[in-house]
Amino acid sequence: MSRHIQLTEQGRLKHFLSIEGLSRELLTEILDTAESFSGMAGHQIKKVPLLRGKTIINLFFENSTRTRTTFELAATRLSADVLNMNIATSATSKGESLLDTIRNLEAMHVDMFVVRHALSGAAHFIAQHTAPHISVINAGDGQHAHPTQAMLDMFTIRQHKKQFAGLKVAIVGDILHSRVARSQILALNSLGVDQVRVIAPKTLLPAHVKDMGVIDLHDMAEGLADVDVIIMLRLQKERMNSAFLPSESEYFRCFGLNEAKLKYAKSDVIVMHPGPINRGVEIASSVADGPHSVILQQVSNGIAVRMAIMSMTMQSHGVSA
Ligand code: CP
What we know:
This protein is of the alpha/beta class and about 325 residues long. Helices cover about 35% and strands about 15% of the residues.
């Protein structure tokens, strides 16, 4: 849906709203650009002047720990001026519409909006209605997409496994309500992994999940057999409008990742989770904090990947990376 709106006529990234419609080459360019920024973390001066003079507004209509702070750090490290809108104390609470909020912020000469919203399509809607010089980045919209999370996950996988070809990846848990899973599946398939498996109770899988290019399974022993990467997902209770499970303890028994179930996977498997994690619900602490876990590396990689995406979208406005 977003191919047309996300890219300039020259095929450069203008907005980053979804993985859908983006080529393997473009996704690889994001990963390569992030690689060039990731070395900066160890430098004494962690800043580059790429976005000096640019103004970025973080518009988070939904709670966030990792995404908002790593976007803020990424913008700061690119030398942009960054402003975090506090939605709870903004005029949104007085009934101002999303579009009126955007128009008023635009009048302050903004160059980029980073948007998280509970409604699927919110970032796309803003991109359709902003001035042509403004880029919009989707920081998670409803159940639809969380493309920067997917790209930092791809970066982490490539860091550990070097290439995507030949990999078997299992995504476990609440696929039905997960914008992260949707974006990850698109990215993994576009980058050419061998297999994407989704493992969940039937109640937590979308009706036509096979159409997404995955193998669906309902048993951890079968699903985790010989996988290179395990991605665990949280039960997204805030998006559940009825009971999808008998109990959390039953869910953990069947689908929670503990050390016994980890043994089904390859011996060098990496364990990932976008966070926030619920210990003892989808993952045991011994696995979350164990030697296979790369969960905190995912968080660190979020800075370099978001720097890459921000600088690439600004290139469409003449900023050179
Ligand atoms: N992974 C993720 O989106 O976490 P936050 O909700 O803390 O941003």
